[in-house]
Amino acid sequence: MKSKGAIIGFSILGIFSVLILWAVGSYNSLVTLNESTISAWSQVQNQYQRRADLVPNLVETVKGFAKQEKSTFESVVSARSKATQITVSSDMLNNPEAFKKFENAQSELSSSLGRLLAISENYPNLKSNENFLALQSQLEGTENRISIERRRFNDLIQKYNTKIKTFPSSLIASYGGFAVKNYFEASPGSEVVPKIQF
């Protein structure tokens, strides 16, 4: 017959083991969610880079038909330059100022591209140019991909932020150094959809 002390000892050991297993499982879950947000961020970046890569060809194509639109071209080139000069890392997700700066640069590029595409309304030959139509189609597809990846990113951020804020996972999150991450937010004026199709 086991002594009362041995039973209490095994009970404490069992409880301690369960707590350790729970803590390890919670920590691993937080690491998995964190890595998922970083991966989703990379996909957002890929789509923004794809858009930035399309811009020079689009500008050059439109320039061939609308040379007098110099200020619009300069605006697009400047916005692209600003958007691609921002050093992007997963650390940006925890820095609201850097994240907002990135969002603003991307928003400025979107706005400039909208103005560039609107120029085609004044140039019927441009609207029927195969290169322009192909680039326009690629840009439209890229904008759709950006929207999808941003939505996916925000969904993962929501899961991650919820996990680190809810008890008892919040205990592990605070000791593990897991911090709240920023969502992508709509830029002012983004409720007006730019016309991409002509």
Provide the gyration radius in Å.
25 Å
Portion of residues in helices? Answer: over 70%
CATH topology: de novo design (two linked rop proteins)
How many helices? The count is 6
Number of domain modules: 1
Main sheet, how many strands, which sense, barrel? Answer: none
Portion in strands:
under 5%
Verbal overview:
The protein has 198 residues and is mostly helical. The protein has one domain (4-176): LemA-like domain (de novo design (two linked rop proteins), Up-down Bundle), CATH 1.20.1440.20. The protein is built from six helices and no strands. It has helices at 4-65, 70-85, 96-119, 124-127, 130-165, 169-176. The radius of gyration is 25 Å and the shape is rod-shaped. Mean pLDDT is 82; it is low at 190-198.
Short summary of the structure?
The protein is mainly α. The protein is built from 6 helices and no strands.
